[in-house]
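Re: export button greyed out
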Amino acid sequence: MGLTFLSIQGLSVSYGGKADVLRDVSLDVQRGEVIGLIGPSGSGKSTILRTLVGLLKPRAGTVTLDGQVVDYTSRASLRGARDRFAIVFQQYNLFQNMTALRNVAIAPTLVKKRAKADVEAEARALLARVGLAEKVNAYPDELSGGQQQRVAIARALALKPDILLLDEVTAALDPELVGEVLDTIRALQRDGMTMLIVSHEMAFIREVASRVAFLDQGLIVETGPPAEVFDQPRSPAQQKTGRNRHDRSPRLDDGGCRRRRSRSRASDAKRRLSPSA
Ligand code: ADP
Ligand code: MG
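Workaround output, generated via the alternate export path:
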């Protein structure tokens, strides 16, 4: 395996000088890898993605991408971070007054000041890649939620990121529309796109992720291949920590239908992976 593509080392992040919500987070990602970020609500999953893309300033730590340290300190260098990471949120927030094509083409045209014809050709290709070749001229209100989210993914790809960050991109969709968005993500994975995916679609994470990182209270408490993290009991120390934390924070992030749970996190994860879950 070659050079680590993305290296996050000792990342600590707080909101407005309060207590750290990410505490000494480290994660190495190889090119083409898909990492699933899982963990209870409030554990810091979104904060990792927001920090990588430059929406939050780390208090400590370094991020190295393709051998270069990403500098989050200045406005100019933040632009650099935003060139290299693209993020897609639960809420797709398309421009309602623009066609799908224009939504995808607008940033490269305005921000990158690239020639409109070139950008539009790329935007068409991207919309085809997310299965929306027929919808280039549709406006958001003529598209389903799943289709709009796929436009949002195409829009993120239009900036040619090195790494795509997906934050619960299916969480706001009606159940019957989730599959088409997951298909799009599967296709990106097959094309070798490096991705960090926050999702409560555990079966999907298990399928597409090469590794998962389990966060709890701002710490990565476990990293490994999905089968290991989901199926196998963790070290006694981790189980103990997990149980203690679990008592204080009994909710697993499962997209709104949260229940109190008394079982260990490992069995929780397993339960969520079973077909009946
Ligand atoms: P997750 O995505 O895993 O649900 P987040 O990264 O959104 O968790 O949140 C991690 C922690 O940071 C939580 O304790 C949350 O309350 C806190 N937090 C998130 N956003 C803000 C904010 N804008 N201001 C202050 N605290 C925040
Ligand atoms: Mg979140």
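The longest helix spans residues 175-190. The button fix ships in the next patch.
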